[in-house]
Amino acid sequence: MTVQARVAGWGTEADGSTVTWTVSEGRKGRRWREVVAHDTDVAHTLLLETDPAGRFSHLELARADGLWTLHPEGDGTLHGNHVDRSEAGVRHITGWRFDVDDVLIVEGSPLGLAAVAHDLRGSLAVEASVIVGAVVVETDGALRRDDALRIQRVSDSRWQIGGWAPIEIDADGLPVLSGNQRRPLELD
Questions:
Q1: CB–CB of 183/8 below 8 Å?
Q2: Looking at the predicted structure, is the pLDDT value of residue 188 above 90?
Q3: C or N: which end of the chain has fewer Cβ atoms within 10 Å?
Q4: How many CA atoms within 13 Å lie on the side-chain side of 121?
């Protein structure tokens, strides 16, 4: 892509969830923002940053289970915290293995899946698959390591990441949702 992405969009998922998103690309990489709602209830809001090579670099996630902040460190580990209403209140995440080619998955986030597909589209041929390590933020608030997450490029635009619903991305790596609408973030 020769022009940096600065796009807003919205659409629906197969389960009827409404997804509103923005993607802004700059010299530090891409900033992916998303809000997912079921009817009038917000399921989560997300800020996901990827570096210029497309790899995960920072996450801020707000859901009913609390606030998440995660980032990889240079020593091959994942760090951050999960703030919630439990007795402890803050769970520190330190030293989770996170190799340079690992991916971060946020369950229920089509934009997060699109970011993973965007990262791999230059290295994975159509109909090919790869096994990668992953850290998954589950919808119930659990954090888990998956050492063998399968990612398949089903077609030029369609991807199957683990057992989650397939995600479709366009030529710029942006998500394609049902009823897809897009607008530029900046005026000409």
A1: yes
A2: no
A3: C
A4: 21
